């Protein structure tokens, strides 16, 4: 497995604690990593559940895990990319607060790991288009991507 995919960017997130709790900025319009704003949404994964694979043709995905932990995998399916067919695996969440920026054409997905539900916050560059979704999917156990999620039998994945 390679540790880089062309165009994937990682931003280390800073947690600022005080006696009231803590604050963590995720994405700012003056960040080098920022392109444009589409929407913000939150999704979850129960422990052991995989949500994969998908990619976009138009948008960049920016995401982090704000509660729990998740294993994130990325696969470069862009034939014209210098990192074509590279795989990346990252562990994102409370123990590793990072923002992952995934360019168009790179498959990605995640698995909830640990014992708690993982809360995933996504800030894509475009809003979801219900009539023509910019989302192209493969099942998590596809033969097109050489990655083993360690799927648990009987759980709903995809």
TrEMBL record:
Record protein name field: dTDP-4-dehydrorhamnose 3,5-epimerase
InterPro entries in alphabetical order: RmlC-like, RmlC-like_jellyroll, RmlC_Cupin_sf
SUPFAM superfamilies xrefs: RmlC-like cupins
Domain of life of the source: Archaea
């Amino acid at each position: 497995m390679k540790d880089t995919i062309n165009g994937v960017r990682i931003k280390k997130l800073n947690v600022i604690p005080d006696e009231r709790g803590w604050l963590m900025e995720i994405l700012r319009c003056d960040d080098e990593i920022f392109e444009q704003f589409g929407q913000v949404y939150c999704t979850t994964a129960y422990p052991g559940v995989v949500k994969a694979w998908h990619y976009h043709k138009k948008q960049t995905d920016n995401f982090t895990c704000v509660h729990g932990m998740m294993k994130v995998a990325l696969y470069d399916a862009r034939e014209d990319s210098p990192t074509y067919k590279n795989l990346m695996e990252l562990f994102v969440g409370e123990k590793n607060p990072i923002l992952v920026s995934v360019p168009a054409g790179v498959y990605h997905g995640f698995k909830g790991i640990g014992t708690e539900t993982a809360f995933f916050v996504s800030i894509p560059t475009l809003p979801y288009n219900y009539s023509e979704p910019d989302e192209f999917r493969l099942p998590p156990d596809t033969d097109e991507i050489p990655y083993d999620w360690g799927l648990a039998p009987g759980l709903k994945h995809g």
